[in-house]
Amino acid sequence: MxxxxxxxxxxxxxxxxxxxxxxxxxWTPALLGEEVPVPGGDPVRVxxxxxxxxxxxxxxxxxxxxxxxxxxxxASLYFGRNEAGPDGTCGLRCPYHGWQFDADGACIDMxxxxxTSTFKDRVRAKAYPVHESGGIVWTYMGPAExxxxxRDFGTETLPADKVVATKxxxxxxxxxxxxxxxxxxxISWLHAWSAAADIADDGTDKPGYPSNRMTWKYxxxxxxxxxxxxxxxxxxxxxxxxxxxxxxxxxRITEYVAPYSTIIAAIPYNTRHLMVVPIDxxxxxxxxxxxxxxxxxxxxxxxxxxxxxxxDTAFTRRTxxxxxxxxxxxxxxxxxREVQRTETFTGVSDFVSQDMMVTESMxxxxxxxxxxxxxxxxxxxxxxxxxxxxAKALAADxxxxxxLADEGRDFTTIRAADKTLEEGEDWRYLGTDDDPAVQExxxxxxxxxxxxxxx
Length: 455
Ligand code: FES
Ligand SMILES: [Fe+2]
Known about the structure:
The protein is of the alpha+beta class. It has 9 helices and 20 strands. The chain has helices spanning 4-11, 18-23, 174-181, 212-221, 303-307, 337-342, 351-360, 378-397, 436-449, and strands spanning 28-32, 44-48, 51-57, 63-67, 81-84, 90-93, 100-101, 107-109, 130-133, 136-139, 165-170, 226-232, 235-243, 249-257, 261-263, 269-270, 272-280, 283-290, 320-322, 416-421. The strands form 4 sheets. Strands 11, 12, 13, 14, 15, 16, 17, 18, 19 and 20 form a 10-stranded mixed sheet that branches. The mean pLDDT is 94. It binds FE2/S2 (inorganic) cluster and fe (ii) ion. Fe (ii) ion is lined by residues 180, 186, 190-191, 355.
């Protein structure tokens, strides 16, 4: 339960709000690179943290992200012409009176004023710096003096043929989506289907790595996982511990990287980010991107996991672009009540749409002053405490929020593992550099990319 005041701090993201100021200290996904695919191509609208912007790739290939409304009299630059300007410059030209702005927001041409006028040198559009990495155009919207280096989750060295980035529009406050990502208990309910309990033991219900198929069985077998949370330098990680049918303990680890990223467990481990980016207070994007070459590309999100299920997999198999929505609030997420009675827990055929149904139906901003939290909500509580604490500290005395890029911080070491434990084995080393499965996977990835020369 949260006070109304803390709920406001947690959920509001516009300029000048405490959480909005926290989020503006991080490099943040603004759009997919493929939304502005070619130099001189069409501009796109970008709404981010409650601000209306327009993105364009200028005729030299550089991406600009500037205020949508023209600084002159406010026409939308979305309708502008992306073209070369005078003296080798280039940028977006407003369709109203022809003023032109480059990727830095400088007014480079003002043809509606006398040729002798120097007025254009004093006019600027608000522009944010951008950085392209991993198929995403990232931006920094905070004060220039507090800008920290780009946080490299591994995308900076990701081979071009391994870049995978998608985004999915969600019509609720970003915190509701984050809470779903930090709630391993719900997979035993929301995503359940009745036949999962009948999956035959394929011999992997023992200490070690289960098959993807068997993990579904575990989720159905133990529907009240124990949650153990550990604080880390980047936020926290938590284990969801379930008893397997053969009496072992399976752990699914979720990583939380402040402020808006989660990495969900996979076998043997996962490095794919699910990043929740607020569009405004009532909407967010779910970015899903590969930050490193996957240890097991067939793991979570891949075919075998979902092939074991009765769900549509078209969305989960996507390798790029804006994921279309077909199951929305207006059509009740295409819920099939007969299927719900007989086959699946929700009657909603698409896996991610099951999440949408529950998080969007809470309303655009859920009032947390009336909720009743249980043991299963430990990670949700930890995230809220961290975020509200960061917002209050930044507002009080300028304390920088956690997990910013800093000397010695390696964001590529954050990995979410899934394993069935040996008797007495502690889950906390899993997915770290000390995990033999990590060392083995990294060695084989290196060998794959840099084969030893020889005959
Ligand atoms: S409103 Fe854009 S140039 Fe006049
Ligand atoms: Fe879910």
